[in-house]
Amino acid sequence: MTGESESQELKDKVESTVANIEGVKAIYNEILVSKPLALKEKIKSKTKDYGITTNVKARLFKEETKSNLSPVHIKVVTERQIVHLMGIVSAKEAEEAEKIAKTSKGVVKVKTYFEIDNQYKKN
């Protein structure tokens, strides 16, 4: 989970609620506890995040023709310039995607939450 919360209590409540959903195997709670940004700062931050996500996705698609990477299986979410990568991919794809994200403009940090399936083959 990513996003922002004004309190640890709310962050914990969200995690608890998600944990009670049938079929949930694991929870990665990356919700940031912080004071809310002023509207102008929030818009600026979200605009940067959208730009980073777009850049990473575009670079993943560009790399698709050169490798076994299948970007449609990778979810990219950016919060405060931290890129979160998720999906079911092979170990090689995970490594390639992480490298692409880490070398993308504006990225402060990359966190990966891949489920590795080395039996997977790109179509």
Automatic annotation (TrEMBL):
Domain spans labelled BON: 1-35, 48-118
Organism: beta proteobacterium KB13
Identification of the protein by name: Transport-associated
Pfam family, one: BON
Record-linked InterPro entries: BON_dom, Lipoprotein_DolP
